[in-house]
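Handout, page 2. Input:
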Amino acid sequence: MKEEITKGRKKNSPINYEEVINGLIDIWEKDTIFLSYQDIKHPAFTIVQKIDPNIVIPIVLKRMQQEITWFFIILSTIVPQEDWPTFPEETVGKIKDRSEVWIEWGKKKGIIK
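Output:
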């Protein structure tokens, strides 16, 4: 997996966190696409969880604006629960609706535009 996320990076060059995090998300998504749930114990997912949330959150929110999928699960594991947005009851089990609530939360917090 290390080769997949560092491919094309020159030795001793600064880390492009957006590239690394998106690469890890791509690996996680590709490896779990046929599961009925997204595996939060997947190695790529656990690496993302260990990166500073101040770096991860805006990248994940931006990605969610481009692609509606299970990415809100990442946010729910790194954002303290007391800081979560309020989810209307009708969003339960609806990926698109849950994602939109997180995106609006990110806009209100000034994390994304």
